[in-house]
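Morning!

As promised:
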Amino acid sequence: MTEPKTDNAMTFAEPIAETCAGSGKSDCKHGRGENGCDDCKVRLFSVCGALEASELDELDRISQVKNFPAKTMLFDQGALAGSVFNVTEGIVRLYKSLPDGRRQIVGFALPGDFLGLALMDRYGVAAEAVTNVKVCRFARPAFLNYVDGKPHLLRRLHEFAGHELSLAQDQMLLLGRRTAEEKVAAFLLNLQTRYGRIGAMSVNVPLPMSRQDIADYLGLTIETVSRTLTKLAKEKVVVVVPDGVRLLSTDRLDQLAAA
Amino acid sequence: MTEPKTDNAMTFAEPIAETCAGSGKSDCKHGRGENGCDDCKVRLFSVCGALEASELDELDRISQVKNFPAKTMLFDQGALAGSVFNVTEGIVRLYKSLPDGRRQIVGFALPGDFLGLALMDRYGVAAEAVTNVKVCRFARPAFLNYVDGKPHLLRRLHEFAGHELSLAQDQMLLLGRRTAEEKVAAFLLNLQTRYGRIGAMSVNVPLPMSRQDIADYLGLTIETVSRTLTKLAKEKVVVVVPDGVRLLSTDRLDQLAAA
DNA sequence: CGACTGATTGAACCAGCTCAACTCATGTGG
DNA sequence: CCACATGAGTTGAGCTGGTTCAATCAGTCG
């Protein structure tokens, strides 16, 4: 019982991957491990999954691994889009703000998610690291140039954009027409599913983002999120643990989320 | 004063364009006017704007003009996506529903808008004609085949999808964080802008959709929409007229919509 | 005309918000 | 090691923006 650090069984993997982690190799040109894309853990379910080995080499050359400590900004809403990113580790919040400070989080990007899919010349949303984040960064001009003449990659980007659009429409339904309880239930199930897709399926759902983040994602207040989680806990649907929840009855949650 | 029809100056153009309207020509193979895409009023600001004359000929061959009377369904949520559409006349509502009947309209498609942008194998939303609607319909397999080998068209589709995604994110901010008054103000300005883009800029903003549609788009009830419009009218910001509103103070509306 | 449909208005209600107190974990410096 | 500060989360109590329920009104159509 004299552990210096908590033995919390639920924190989401967030190694403070320092630049050029690789294996301590010193002449790491692009700040990546020695094998570049080859040992990328998210490649297969990210946009890069559409590429051949030779194309990956080329991609390696225009990419750069970059770390963003928790709470730092990757880019701001409305800024010129100088780069596009592929998240490889950690969680990023994407949001829009009103002049008076009201904020709407439009999505949480997980490993494998691509930022800047729309390929527009300005970022439509701001992006901030929730946890420590590791990304593959591409200068936008180089990336656009790379995409030109690779219709299968463009096609893949388009597929991802279509998927994003579909998620956005689901979120509109949630924001406009669901109750607080339904929103929270849907959020938890949705996160669980997404963790599952990146190989972390479990009834333990880490919530590395703050209550405020969750509230701003669901169009609620921090108090309502807290009360709703407490209510679900009282009903034995979930257990609230430090930095996350354990889902006791996904059936009941499904019912609440009412698809 | 004995006009049989109202002399309402505000109805949005919605000719009951019967199939093969053209100029009464009878051997109209694809149900279009004699000049096909050439005299298409929306081509330049739709996805087809990316195409050369020769490519348009080819597109003509795989397309079909189709009319949907008001209130008919173009396709249902979750159905196999057999076709994609380009709206050329009228307004379409795109929506998602919950099992208990709650509905969220995720967008109104105006002339020039493309339905099925995501190119997914199932429709993510349902589409219903608000007014009488005229579309250019493409069988999805033929369209996909057509797109293959036309990267500039795919690029254009992707641009449109990116724009859609951006609009969806704006709508999330609106749904999650704006008040009723801000929602209505933003809606009216937004519609005015969109009419403007298709050459119908005016302070007169037709509202061919019902109050229920507006409510389901803004995440409100029909009564709140009605009350908010009445309030704006009392404050001389708008005038409510049959089938639409006249904007008296776009400045004040801008202020309310608070970007 | 009467029936029907969509919109407006009124009045009571309530889900979620606001404001405020309290808890709990972490950190800091004396 | 403890006193104290800090920041995130929870809980309580009262309030309110928007909903709900119920008339009423205004066109439109047969």
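The mean pLDDT of chain A is 88.

Hope this helps with the figure draft.
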